[in-house]
Amino acid sequence: MTKILVIIPEIHCPSCEKLVKASMSGLQGIQSVSISLPNKEVEIQYNPGEINPDKIISSIQEGTGYTVHTKGKENSYQEYNSIQNEIQPESNSLNSSQMLSIDIEGMHCSSCALLIEKSLKKVPGVQNANVNFSSSQAMVKVAGNISQDQLIKAVENAGYTGVIQDEIQKIDETEKRKKETKYRWRKFSISALLSVPMIIFMLYDFFPGLLPWGGLIMPRMAIVSLILTTPIQFIIGADFFKGARSALKMKTFNMYSLIAIGTGVAFIFSLYNFILFIYQTGSWIGLNGEKIGNIYFEISSLLIMFVALGKYLEARAKGSTSQAIAKLMGLAPKTAKVKRGTSFVDVDIDQVKKGDIILVKPGEKIPIDGMIISGHSSIDESMLTGESMPVEKNTGSKVFGGTINKLGSFEFEVTKVGNETALAQIIKLIQEAQGSKAPIQGFADKISGIFVPSVIGIAIVVFLIRFFFLGVSFATALLYFAAVIVIACPCALGLATPTALMVGTGKGAEKGILIKGGEPLETLCKVDMIVFDKTGTITEGKPEVTDITSVDGYDQDLILQIAVGLESKSEHPLAEAIVRYGKEKRIGFSTVSNFQAIPGKGVIGEIDGQIYFLGTKILLTENNIPVIDQYSIEQLESEGKTVMLIATDKEMIGTISVADTIKDTSIEAIKRLKAMGIQVYMMTGDNQRTAQAIANQVGIDHVFAQVLPENKASKVKELQDQGHIVAMVGDGINDSPALTQADVGIAMGSGADVAMESGNVVIMKNDLNDVITAIKLSKETVGKIKQNMFFALFYNVLGIPIAGGALASLGLVLKPEFAGLAMAMSSVSVVINSLLLKFFHTHRKNWISIFAPVIMTVVFLGFFRNFAQIGSGQNISSLSQKLSPALRTDLNQFMINTPNKIGFTPGGVPKIFLGTDQLLSGLKISEGTGLFGTEPEIIIGFKEAQMMKEEGLIKKAGDSLNDFFGLPSVKIVGILAPTNTLLDEVHIMNNEGFSGLDVQNSLFITQTPFEELKIFYLYDNDNIPLKLQNIINPKKHIYTIDGTTYHSTYVGYDEAQMMIEENLFKKKYDTITNLFGNDIIIAGLPKKTYTTLDMMHFVPRENWKK
């Protein structure tokens, strides 16, 4: 076994460590890899018989992009360049062990992400793939030479499109999210607009008689719905069908499989019935002022509209991503002053190379990473470190692109360019972190994998049982199938998370808290440990004068005046704090001459002929001035303060202390966190004494002191390794890896943009109490998401057995339109429940939100029960009286022997009347008494009464009808319970009312030997029904064929279909002998009228034998 030791200067955190190890994970012969982050060293044990050092280092460089140095015999570091001799791969080829990011378009749900993952993992050489639906990105780890085309092809095979990003690619994420949100809004708004008429149709359907013009609107419902639903189904809903198709290709199901099947079945079934209606009736609109039956286009349109609403809200929730990465990329200047010969010229930053010499003047931004070779300065690195104190830089010091030069000019040599710079590496880390998957999506994934195929299986079983074993028609069995699919369609599941996220994050935004999606929400409520960065988080992050002390009776105002005078000549940030303090105290400026700034030590100047020194102990010691009261100075320093000494050329006269003060809210916030049972840590680069002093002031018991910026993430990981759910609160770029490493990263809004980008949660008001607010809000929002999951599935699961007809014996039958409405109710309940988050308050309980789910469950269960009862009410057979054979025989005789008449409405709709003073014994009355008196009175069949209620002619038994077929008034004394016979469409009148009817006596009712009632309408020149005037020829009563006389007979549509099925005839002009004692010829076959005319035989009154 052989060892090789390499140096990688760029590694600085556990993420770098993982990246380096991942770059070698695909190599054969590697035995172990040991990484020391503080020393930037990587020790690799390998088998020289299987692999050589060249290949190892080549793999590291290609897989990470880092510069790799080998450690030679003289302990010197040499950059490794042997890979230059390697064979270069083709430009579109990807080398071993590197992470790639793919932008993906066309994903509809978390199941889509699973499909793409599955497809990518099938590509040879792909070690792992993680697709994040929220960010629309795939992070793919590849090993070996893999063509980009292979990966893109894998994405396309799953039914989506993808583009591989460059390692650091400038993508306007905000613009991308805006585009997606607009796209989703456009789809929802168009579908909602097109669905409005269908919602109106549903209102007419559910509340008949209450809305005007029903007889004009409802017959046109089908054709209007078809026209409006078609673009919704095939344009707005195209994405859902693509998602279902992709799932089918991958031999699985997702939520959109249900949506595609449910809407597809509803649309095709409705289209079939509409075409059938046109064929049967010859009409494009409903007859008799009624809608066309079994048309469910509204189910398809409303399902897609609700899902489109969910996708829009989801896009809004995902669209909160800021442009911080783009801003970060713009921090560094676009040009640099590069030395060319003896002069400096402006050069595009892309043209700068390693080894170039760059000049930076005061106030300018440093364009790129490097090392100072001449000059010195004080550099503001707050955008990188989050620390407000500027850093003194001298020859040999490192400088970083994007930081600001505060004092002095200097020249530096470029050491890193492009993807190697500190900014580029931080951006890379953040992009990879954002590509991770939110855990909360796992629940929806599991539902998609189990619930969807289970529902499809149940629907198929219901169809098979109904059609093959229970003997119902194909159309009826398909209706049950559609009802199961529709009620089970979990479109509310698509609303469950985004609506709660939308309202919760919106409420957070109102309070200055930005929560980026489901992952921090799910995790934040579980946090049991919080780590605070000190500067800018617990403290203000802005140096301020805290103490002024005097020696030997010197006046403090005089000391301040001297200090302000001296520091007014300085450009040091601490000097700015002293000058600012002097202005606040209205201290006058003394004239300073012979001013001299000594970098890293202080300043010297002359005021009124007296030389003064202001700076460190070193400054006084080097000028032989004794430092007085050393103990007090150390005491101040132990409080975390920077102490500057003021002296004449002979003696020390006082001190001025500058410190970063603790925020007003820090103590209270930390106390509240500890009361919630959360452990609190503080992390800082200060020494232990200073750090502990600040921790004691705010009540923090645990301190990480003297932590270098690059080690912050490893400290967080230490706590995580102990089993804690850790939140990190910080504000600097140096906090970004720690924010990313933490289970939840909380960034202070006053900090660096990249910290806000790294943070899962951003506190905009810079108040630590908002950390508590964020935790409480996350708990309530996650609670709402879980409640929404319940509402999203509760009605669906409850409705499956009802929709399948399992509870028909209990009077509960759920037709597809009511199944769709129940499905919609689950969506409504989800939205309402989410909106209750608007009542969230930091300091009191949201009682409305607590009790509302229980109330909504009870209320919506009531609605659900009513839907089922209404559905069963429309299914007459499910509630029909159980007629015994004897009662059925009696009923037939009652219908045959009771005097009858037939009248017609102005629209030609027939009404059958029976005249008797005594109702047949055994028939049940559903409303009223059913007892006749001496005035004209009527008992109405169940189906006829329902129609009259829908038309607003009556409301209940006991009402009266005026001007009724020649009668001035007739009272309704009863409504029959349904019998599923002709009686349901008949009016039974007492003899007083029957005799006064101004209608025809044209019916003849008889029965077959098998007790099937047959109705004959006896026509002549004067009584042809309006609807059949173009069919019946009253002047052609008979046909004589081969000496046999046949009566011209016209058969209603339903009766004709039955006779054709029984082979009594096949077509027009066929003849039938001895039909109830008469020979007939089929003179005509009328279209379907959807009235009792469809059950009749129309025969000539003249010579017909009764």
Radius of gyration: 43 Å
Distance between the termini: 112 Å
Tally the beta strands: 47
- Please state the structural category: alpha+beta
Low-confidence segments, given as residue ranges, are: 72-96, 167-171, 320-326, 429-438, 871-879
Helical content class: 40-55%
Folded structure, characterized:
There is one protein chain. By secondary structure, the chain is of the alpha+beta class. Among the domains are: 2-70, Alpha-Beta Plaits, CATH 3.30.70; 98-169, Alpha-Beta Plaits (2-Layer Sandwich), CATH 3.30.70; 175-326; 334-420, Calcium-transporting ATPase, cytoplasmic transduction domain A (Distorted Sandwich); 539-661, Calcium-transporting ATPase, cytoplasmic domain N (3-Layer(aba) Sandwich), CATH 3.40.1110.10; 885-1100, no CATH class. The chain is 42% helix and 23% strand. The chain has 35 helices and 47 strands. A 7-stranded mixed beta sheet has the order 21-33-32-31-22-29-30, with helices on both faces. Strands 34, 35, 36, 37, 38, 39 and 40 form a 7-stranded mixed beta sheet that branches. Helix 8 (238-249) crosses helix 9 (255-281) and helix 10 (297-318) packs parallel to helix 16 (491-510). The longest helix is centred in the last third of the chain and has 35 residues, at 769-803.
